[in-house]
Amino acid sequence: MEKLKAGTVARSVARRILHPRHLVRAVNLQRRRKKHARAVADPQLALFAQILPGGFLHYGYFDDPDRPAEEISLADLGRAQDRYAELLMGLIDDRQSPMLDVGCGMGGLSRLLCEAGFEPTALTPDRNQATYVTSTLPGVPVIQSKFENLPEPQTHAGRYGTVFTSESLQYLKLPLALPLMNQILKPGGTWIACDIFRTGESRGKGGHNWGEFTEQLATHGWVVTYERDITPHVLPTLRVVHMFGNTLGLPLMEFALLKLNSKQPALHYVLEDVLSMVRQVVESNLRIVNPDEFVSCKKYMLLTIRRTADM
Residues of the chain whose pLDDT is less than 70? Predict the structure, then answer.
């Protein structure tokens, strides 16, 4: 078996750090990281497409919220994602007008809308997702943009009978997004949202604060006309992710670190602080998908929202 020698690795790292050309290259790559950050999405999209070919990147919806994680297969996750989309589509009132799928991901909802005879337009700020949706759903117009930066918004004024934000609402800047939503919806149109919200006084990432969100809606002339807390029905997905992270991910990582320490102690010593940070990040991410932690400070809501002027 070919082995990686610590001396070879150390010399390679030193050359990259000490050689001016490599140092300049590293600095330039770091400065351009935001521009190219999503370039890594290509293999991720390919992986998601093979594992969950429905084209969804959301939590899914399990009719049986008490389903044990050990009994959930990839096929079950796929069915839960289709079921989630069915819930959203069941809230459509205007079946004739065009629809906008904001934060379309890999196009799962747009695909089902097409199959049901609707006319969706897909929107995503991600270049790779836009390319993927264009190639897999050639009949669906794709807008590559953040919602708040919708190009030529006047051409979309009053166009859409339904706008979907499926796990994309949490990323919208509400002071900009709410007036734009008002502009693009037809009179009497429906905004269908399904997303995570923070509850109580909880701060940080992971959705808008529910109280602050409803206050901003009222301030901008919106009212929630239907709401359903579906938190229990998304928890099975979190339980699966949390289970695999703890029973497979963490043990594999610890095994790899022990192996590195055994075979390449010098390299392990040099990378010790970095490896410790990696471990902390993994553990932090596992806390995020811990179902108990989730329900303590968040909830998952299915909503229809309309302008008060249309009520």
Answer: 1-57, 202-204
